[in-house]
Amino acid sequence: MEGLSEMESVIEEPLLSKQNSNAKGGFRTLPFIIANEAFERLASLGLMPNMILYLTREYGMQTAGATNFLLLWSAASNFTPFVGAVLSDSYVGRYSMIAFGSIASLLGMVLLWLTTLIPLSKPLCNQFTNSCNNSPTTIHLLILHSSFALMSIGAGGIRSSSLAFGVDQLSKRDKNAGIKESYFSWYYAIVAMSSLIGLTVVVYIQDNMGWAVGFGIPVILMFVATVSFFLASPFYVMVEVKRNMLSGLAQVLVASYKNRLLQLPQETENGIYHLEKDSDLLMPTEKLRFLNKACLIRNSLQDLTPEGRALNPWNLCTVDQVEELKALIKIVPIWSTGIMMGVNISQGSLLVLEASSMDRHITSNFEIPSGSFVTFMIVSLVLWVIIYDRILVPVASKIKGSPACIGAKQKMGIGLLTGCIAIASLAVVEDIRRKIAIEKGYEDQPQAVVNMSALWLLPRQILNGLAEALGVVGQNEFFLTELPQSMSSLASTLNGLGSSVANLVASFILSVVDNVTGGGGHESWLSSNINKGHYDYYYTLICALCFVNFVYFLYCSKSYGPCKNRGK
After folding, report:
1. Which is the CATH superfamily of the domain at 328-560?
2. Which regions span the lipid bilayer (predicted)?
3. Which of 286, 386, 429, 478 sits at 20 to 30 Å (Cα–Cα) from 11?
4. Is 77 in contact with 149 (CB distance < 8 Å)?
């Protein structure tokens, strides 16, 4: 009960209160950090759906060229957070990276908005015929490309460091009270909710009020987020960069190779390993023992300066450097288990095809757009976070008499298993839908709507929302807990990196299935005619792979051992 009341007292701390005005960090700073990324996601995702129309109608681009342009922008926006994380952890620090990203995003959005206000900034086109009086000039394209480049750079700065910067604000008392776990959950839920608003409200404004207003709203939101982030600057905890993370990891690899012929002692003696000043680590762990040679002192007179530093860091590293590399290598197997979760989630485009061939009416006059079924997954995710954080955790803590929560690895495991059930439900629904379509004689009519409610697709979306809420939040919590604080920005981007790999894996699986099942004159499982294909077989294959991945996760989890500060 004491732990629960302590958590409540932290949550009730007013934002930027005059009381304790000299204190740094704490829960009060988190809304400003979360809002900054939430508004960036809302703005960038709100621009994406209709951007193909803006480029073709206002710039006279061909559909293929405009699509390729947007794909490159999406790829850049997914890659820049990884670059930003490396720069943040190695050189500039998290606050500076977010500040730079916020300004870059704002400038990019303002520049794009100006193209709707200044006629000379783009070609003169007839949006109804998609014909232009003149082709885009070099200046027109430079303005357009610069705006998107700035938004991608800004995304890299904000998304790479926001989650980790929030963790920096939490004291040891906050983490023990459960604030850290709540922060992970609410961070992901709020970002997901902002994405939902961007994909619905902002797109609606663009459709009904024009480009100037539709692009202006994201500018205003990003401006407010940027200003509020800087206003809270005096209250932030700003962790300084101690060393270059990239060179530090490389030094361990080089030093361990150079010292590969050295014999490690069977029993550790004091002073035999190079220790960092004020470090809690006195000796390296026994796992990945060959790396320990990187911090093994051969001759203290030849290897160390009078101050105790390594004369050549490429020949001798500290125990902390060695353990950082070990921690990164150690989490790779568990990180890889999240790839199939991404593959599962990425099947949403096929779900749209199913929904379009089913009865989507809620009432006689209202029909759910087939592309809007993704919103049910986001709503499910947000609802689960609210139920877990506001109901389940307090009730369990009250019964237990101390703060209670599900461990990071348990969340990941439950999320992976729930994902298996979700895709299995989709396979069952598709099998029933296909049989009805064939019975009604729709085998050659893929556009025909069968007499089956599309609401049968909701179990998959609801379960996937739960799987994401547990799996993704659990992964972020795991990476940020297990990796050293000096690598926090990198840790917060590992999930996004896994999603990028998952898209490639999903594309590979889809291509293989299409080529193998569609060979020899046979109808492919993934035929353009959904009634002739066997999407149910494809979903069953994905389900089987997800289950194998779940078993693989159990093995990796057991091999990893207990997490930090946790006995399970």
Report:
1. MFS general substrate transporter like domains (1.20.1250.20)
2. 69-87, 99-119, 139-165, 186-205, 211-237, 331-353, 373-391, 412-429, 537-556
3. 478
4. no
